[in-house]
Amino acid sequence: MPLNLIMMGPPGAGKGTQAEQFARKRGIPKISTGDILREAVHNGTEIGRQANATMARGELVSDDVMIGIVRERLDQSDARNGFVLDGFPRTVAQATALDQIMKDRDPLIVVDIVVPEAELVRRLSTRMVCEVCSHTAGAFDPGVHAAEGASVAECTRCGGKLVQRDDDDNAVVRERLKVYQRQTQPLVEYYNARPTFRSVNGSQPPDRVASDLVTAIDSAWSGVAVKGARS
Fold first, then answer.
1. Which of 12, 37, 63, 209 has fewest C-beta within 10 Å?
2. Residue 15 designated active-site
3. What are 13-58's pLDDT values in tens digits?
């Protein structure tokens, strides 16, 4: 049966990387709001045109437009065998709409990667990006290293210079985390009573987080499969 997964987590939790790795191993698409927004605009769909016009005015894309774009993407054939959603839903209104989209499909599994704020600040303020290939290197990434005697860190992928992202300044990071907490706490409360909701400790090294994610997701998925077999 299809595995329909929402991966939640604050900036710096490693959610995007974990979502991408898990999706690749399971052979299902990783669907991020940024990716599907760009795809809808590129394909010139009606909703894509609406989103493009909104962004051209310097405005944020509305819930209605984002919900429409996600609906279009989940209707594509590759998502019928399962998917990993990264970055959606972000609000309870989006989550409610997603439940309606999934009404005649298999249940959603929701995993929240939990990391204390102090650790997130440490990770984000030390996170660096390559000026050449745009690879992001974080606290656990072997890409952050300085050659002996060198004054700058180098990217292990291409040898380019690693620099701090503009939005990873300490004060900016704390504000981003406050915004995330305000937006996401109601969403966690919306999902956490469901038997398919799991939390994972994201403070661990990435390989341990990946292992715990697989255990949590398989546990929730097995429960869904058993329930489906009985009904």
1. 63
2. yes
3. 989 889 999 999 999 999 988 777 878 788 888 888 888 887 778 6
25 is annotated as an active-site residue: no
Alpha-carbon distances of 226 from 3, 81, 214, 230, rounded to whole Å: 14, 18, 18, 6
Residue from 15, 30, 123, 198 carrying the catalytic annotation: 15
**In terms of residues, how long is the chain?**
231
pTM strictly above 0.70:
yes
Architecture of domain 3-115+170-230: 3-Layer(aba) Sandwich (3.40)
Query: Could you say which of 30, 73, 176, 198 is catalytic?
Result: 176
Asked if 182 is an active-site residue, the reply is: no
The catalytic residue among 26, 90, 122, 174 is: 90
Distance CA 48, CA 75 (A): 15
Q: Residue with structure tokens 């030390």? A: 126
